[in-house]
Amino acid sequence: MDKIALLKTFVVVANEGSFTRAADRLNTSNQLISKYVAQLEKHLDVRLFNRTTRKIHLTEAGQQCLLHANHILESVNDMEGQLGLLNTHAKGVLHVSAPVSFSTLHLSSALAAFQQAHPSVSVNLQLNDRKVDVVEEGLDVAIRAGHLSNSALVAKKITTIHLALCASPAYLEKYGAPSHPSELKPEHYLEYAYVNYDSDTSELMKALKTNAQKVTPKLVANNGEVLTNVAKQGDGYVLQPTFIAADALTRGELISILDEFVPRPISLYAVYPHRKLVSNKLRVFIDFLCAYFEDTPYWDKRLPRG
């Protein structure tokens, strides 16, 4: 049996968790399924499953094999699509990782519009602000903001993200508006837990880093929406991307300060494993996001200009 067919059989067994269910799905016999898995194990010289009388479980080697097999089969399917079925619609399941606040505030509406345009594509969305391992976790694409470190991943810019240092009108009335980062009160700093102070050499980032080291920030949180809501109550100042702060800035609930010292804009990227062939579903998804958000996103177009 050819290796592609062996891999397809192995993937079905792994997904079904049973030789019997895999045989039913593939409309063949249990004995033939066992034979094909045994042939693949012999070829790879590893055990792919731990077998008991009632259940089967992937071994560590089996888990690694499943990741590679999925990528290989997806590439084969995409090759067939690009060479012979260029006019077919994008289809399949797209596994996506994205930041929490960006997803709840903006990506959710983009996904709804995307699936209206491409109803044959299903999306499995995982929300996480940590930088996940795209390959290890079997993802098709991760949405990431910031300055990307050098890696074997491919990065496509989706849009530009501006930052703003914000405080409420009540806070500024009580403590005054600073004219220089050195005038910021360390005890009033609302700090985002994942901030990377070394990504920018601006005076503001240096001052915020110094303040955080000098005095424990008033609040540290790993969610920007929480920090923004606290700042709106007049309890301090916060550095946030405008995709979080734009509504509060537009309504006057927050005011941007020290604009001339704010770090340079960063980018939002679609990051995916480096492959010679990119699946149709991934290509149309990235192209859709780029067109939906544009280089100047809609939330920045609504910001007050002063």
UniProtKB/TrEMBL annotation:
GO terms for biological process: DNA-templated transcription. GO terms for molecular function: DNA-binding transcription factor activity; sequence-specific DNA binding. Keywords: DNA-binding, Transcription, Transcription regulation. Residues 1-59 form the HTH lysR-type domain. Belongs to the LysR transcriptional regulatory family. This is LysR family transcriptional regulator.
